[in-house]
Amino acid sequence: MRMRKIGRLAMVSAAAVGLTLGSTAGAEASVAKPAKAVLKPFVFDRKHESHVYKGNGIIFTAQINLTRGPFAPGFPMPWSYRIGPALRAIATGPMACVATGHDGYHDSHSKPPIPVNYYWHSTVRKHVKHKVYDLYLTCKFPVNVGGNPGIATSKHHFKYKINP
Fold first, then answer.
1. pLDDT at 31
2. Over the stretch 2-49, which tens digit does the pLDDT of each residue have?
3. In the chain, which ranges are E strands?
4. Is 158 left (phi over 0), alpha (psi -120 to 50) or beta?
5. Which residues, 6+ apart, have CB-to-CB distance to 123 below 8 Å?
6. 29 close to 6: Cβ distance less than 8 angstroms
7. Could you say which DSSP state residue 57 is in?
8. Which of 6-10, 23-27, 81-85, 153-157 has the lowest mean pLDDT?
9. CA–CA distance from 163 to each of 72, 123, 143 (Å)?
10. Buried residues in 50-68 as b, exposed as e (16+ CB within 10 A)
11. What's phi and psi for 87, nearest 5 deg?
12. Angle 54-57-62 from CA coordinates, rounded to 5°
């Protein structure tokens, strides 16, 4: 596996875990270059109304009600994003988070920043059935690994579509 040094920055992404815990000189972390994989969309349908992703230091959930009425127009999709316990354990301060998606969807918690244990959540609206959508989430927060300070960047890309 090819590794790349990135100095005083540690990264965590849905494609590859990049934070190497251990003694590193000069607060360096190793980051694996993710393979060029095609991200297939999660399909919400009557049998699959919820999605849970646990990995790479985060927990992401999303759900859409397709079986119990009344149904809201635009298929609203509530979602949540939490930093996992291993990353919370090395965090030394609050995080700044931004989510972006279709039709200008934007949710930001950067000024003021939020606690690293915050249960970040929101709702994306205005969906059209059978269309593929992307939701991008990013959080940055200070960390200390073995006495070496740095910044962790946690990212998640959720690709989905709705087939009611």
1. 44
2. 333 333 333 433 333 333 333 223 333 334 455 566 789 999 999 999
3. 3-5, 9-12, 30-32, 42-44, 50-55, 58-63, 77-83, 95-100, 106-114, 120-124, 132-145, 148-162
4. beta
5. 76, 77, 78, 79
6. yes
7. T
8. 23-27
9. 15, 18, 41
10. ebeeeebbbbbbbbbbbee
11. -75, -35
12. 40
The whole-number pLDDT of residue 35 equals 57
pLDDT at 44: 96
User: Phi and psi dihedrals of 90, rounded to 5?
Assistant: -105, -5
pLDDT tier, 142 (very low <50, low <70, confident <90, very high otherwise): very high
Phi then psi for 157, rounded to 5 degrees?
A: -115, 120
Burial of 155 (0-12, 13-18, 19+ CB in 10 A): middle
Helical H segments across 60-102, by residue range: 85-90
103: number of Cβ within 10 Å = 12
Tokens of 42: 């999660």
